[in-house]
Amino acid sequence: MAEAVSRFRPGSQQRGEDTRRRILETALELFATDGFEGASTRTLAERAGVNLPAIQYYFGSKEGLYRAVVEHITQQLEDRLVPVSTHIHTTLTQGQPSPRQLISMLCDLLDTLISLMIDENVPDRERRQKFFARIEVEPNPATDVLLESIMQHVMAPCTELIGRLTNRAADDEQVLLRAMTIIGQAKIFCSWGTNRVLCADAISESQVRAIQTLIREQIHAIFRGMRHA
User: C-alpha distances in angstroms, 203 versus 191, 192, 198, 219?
Assistant: First the structure.
């Protein structure tokens, strides 16, 4: 009997993980389209193919589910961003990289950001894009952990690199403004207008590469112009 119970548990655990994942994915879509207030747990349960108590069992409440969605998105972003930001931090800490190396690392960071925003091959890209658009107009305290992660793994390394390139402190106002301007070049592609402007239902891999190349060219031009000035 004990052996039967032991054999049963892995399958039960797997079904539980699948159910939790299905609720999370459905919640990401619903919160992105309807917002936190507009999303109904009853509708969510129906679309996820679970009974209503399952949401309480796995997440405690609607608020708990929303926090879990934010944590899920944060983890997805960090899986891609942390290796890049860690490399930048380590390189800056251990030595004095050349301007060429600094610009290259800045371009790598923006490449990763662009990929997360518009590359169709990145998991949950479209739903995450809609979710970001939603929290722009409906901020929620639960998203603080997500915004802090972006500040840590995008804004912070960006300002460190620009600070080195301009011989200014990372928290200098001019550095912060330049960082926001450079990141804004990537952020604009997060909007749904990208597909409309390009007259495409989906952004192709070649278009992603083209956007990354153009932003790299602009970054090089910015700092080349500063050196000439």
Answer: 12, 11, 8, 22
Query: Looking at 20, 41, 60, which one is the last position of a domain?
Result: 60
pLDDT digits (tens, 9 = 90+) for 36-82: 999 999 999 999 999 999 999 999 999 999 999 999 999 999 999 99
Residues in the chain: 229
Does 12 share its domain with 103? no
Same domain, 172 and 217: yes
Helix extents (H) in 39-61: 41-48, 52-59
For the chain, the distance separating the N- and C-terminal CA atoms, rounded to the nearest angstrom, is: 80
Cα torsion 85, 91, 93, 99 to 10°: value is -100
pLDDT tens per residue across span 7-18: 434 455 667 889
Residue 65 and residue 98: Cα distance in Å, rounded?
A: 46
Which domain covers residue 150, as residue numbers? 68-228
32 and 101 both lie in a single domain: no
d(CA 64, CA 205): 36
Instruction: Indicate if 120 and 77 belong to the same structural domain.
Output: yes
Token look-up 């923006």 returns 110
Q: Would you state the torsion angle of the CA atoms of residues 35, 197, 146, 90, taken in this order, to the nearest 10 degrees?
A: 170
